[in-house]
Recover the amino acids of this structure.
């Protein structure tokens, strides 16, 4: 029997606000000591009243717009009732039938809805005392719950969806969305549908749905779903039907395990939150729509079109925080250098596509491989860099016009990363420039030919690859300062090949 996995996701993301959802406590995460960011509201003291954080509403609407959702004119909060030690009020303030966003799309995947709610506190099982402690710092932190349609068809697709969602949320500034820090947590629903060879559904009703809770890495999402596909497939093969249930994921054993049979909506006895006013979203939507930044998909395309960056370099800039801005600054600075030296332009001043590609490739390469590597080596983030966009552009220009060879360019970039000094200054100070003095190259080649008759013989016998061996020799003698192309020409000239 062939099965088609029917997968839907529910993702909780922590909104990047100053304060918590319904009180003035700082939204500081778990980095602070337990129970230091709490107050009567977020610990659920009797009589304490919630006051809505407007920034959370703005960020929620912004995320909704970025996911192509419709923003209803009105929305309100509801109480979701359940009892658990990390929920002191005995209910969570959430949104039930009037969420702040609905009917969106990310690629081919439908977004059912996105709603605001508060986080629960955190239970800490203390191994020393054997008791359970509760940290209320997390209680009432602002969350956006995003629910997808069951449109995903493989674990891989689910992972890619989450990665793109993370990039979008970071790009619009709604959430840091780090999965490992718990800023983005994922529950996945999966059922297997029997299909024929052409993926035609063989039964009218869907099979029971299994929910896997609290997946906290991309890898966990992918592996837990793959595990469920196998487990459920084997059950159907034995003519058993997997019960609709909530399951957990054991990271170490790489298996899912049953936690509880599924609750229904009725179990939560939702009713409108009487302590909060209904939300009017008309003005907020207008404001957020006007300020919505460029989204990742458009940004990838623009970086390739406008600057000639390769697809993978553009992807790197889009996914990594701050890199698009830096790359664009470098290209803007580089523009004036190109202006000064590289005159191949079409009528109307437009830079030729080929030129653009050449510069984009050069800049993209040095930024995403060498510069990234050097920052990592020095344990620096992009933000902590000493190097300016202006200096980086000048550095690229020195390479392109041949003032410096690529081996010494590496050294120069290292010095720039270390000191932040400008490249022409460092070039002079450390004597890294290319020395194209034809006399030195001539003499060096002459000497190498005299000293290496065997290699000369090989070239005369037609092994032209050995010419590169002489070029290498010239580079060594000149400490990387000769222009390899001039050296090669000189070798050919002197040997008459
Ligand atoms: Zn509080
Ligand atoms: Mn929720």
């Amino acid at each position: 029997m062939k099965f088609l996995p029917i997968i839907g996701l529910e993702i909780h993301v922590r909104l990047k606000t100053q304060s918590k959802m319904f009180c003035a406590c700082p939204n500081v995460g778990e980095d602070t000591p337990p129970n230091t960011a709490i107050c009567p509201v977020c610990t659920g003291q009797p009589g304490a009243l919630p006051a809505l954080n407007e920034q959370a509403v703005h960020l929620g609407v912004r995320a909704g717009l970025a996911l192509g959702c419709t923003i209803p004119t009105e929305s309100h909060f509801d109480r979701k009732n359940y009892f658990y030690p990390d929920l002191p009020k005995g209910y969570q303030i959430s949104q039930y039938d009037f969420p702040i966003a609905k009917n969106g799309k990310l690629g081919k995947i439908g977004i059912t809805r996105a709603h605001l709610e508060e986080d629960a506190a955190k239970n800490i099982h203390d191994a020393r005392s054997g008791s359970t402690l509760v940290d209320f710092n997390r209680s009432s932190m602002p969350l956006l719950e995003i629910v997808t349609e069951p449109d995903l068809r493989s674990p891989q697709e689910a992972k890619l969806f989450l990665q793109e969602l993370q990039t979008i949320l970071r790009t619009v500034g709604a959430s840091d969305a780090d999965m490992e820090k718990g800023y983005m947590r994922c529950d996945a629903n999966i059922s297997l549908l029997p299909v024929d060879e052409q993926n035609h559904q063989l039964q009218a009703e869907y099979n029971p749905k299994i929910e896997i809770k609290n997946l906290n890495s991309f890898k966990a999402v992918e592996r837990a779903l793959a595990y469920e596909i196998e487990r459920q497939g084997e059950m159907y093969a034995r003519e058993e039907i997997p019960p609709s249930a909530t399951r957990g994921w054991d990271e170490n054993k790489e298996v899912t395990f049953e936690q509880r049979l599924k609750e229904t909506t009725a179990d939560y006895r939702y009713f409108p939150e009487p302590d909060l006013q209904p939300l009017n979203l008309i003005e907020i939507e207008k404001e957020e729509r006007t300020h919505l930044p460029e989204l990742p998909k458009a940004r990838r395309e623009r970086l390739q079109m406008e600057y000639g960056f390769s697809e993978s370099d553009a992807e790197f800039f889009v996914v990594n925080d701050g890199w698009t801005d830096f790359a664009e600054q470098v290209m803007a600075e580089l523009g004036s250098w190109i202006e000064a030296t590289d005159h191949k332009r079409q009528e109307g001043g437009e830079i030729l596509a080929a030129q653009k590609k050449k510069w984009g490739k050069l800049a993209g390469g040095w930024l995403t491989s060498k510069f990234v590597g050097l920052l990592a080596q020095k344990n620096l983030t992009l933000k902590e860099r000493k190097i300016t966009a202006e200096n980086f552009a000048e550095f690229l220009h020195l390479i392109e016009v041949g003032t410096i060879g690529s081996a010494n360019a590496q050294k120069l970039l290292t010095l720039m990363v270390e000191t932040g000094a400008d490249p022409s200054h460092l070039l002079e100070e450390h004597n890294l420039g290319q020395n194209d003095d034809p006399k030195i190259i001539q003499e060096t080649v002459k000497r190498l030919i005299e000293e290496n008759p065997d290699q000369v013989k090989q070239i005369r016998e037609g092994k032209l690859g050995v010419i590169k061996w002489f070029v290498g020799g010239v580079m060594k003698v000149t400490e990387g300062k000769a222009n390899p192309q001039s050296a090669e020409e000189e070798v050919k000239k002197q040997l008459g090949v």
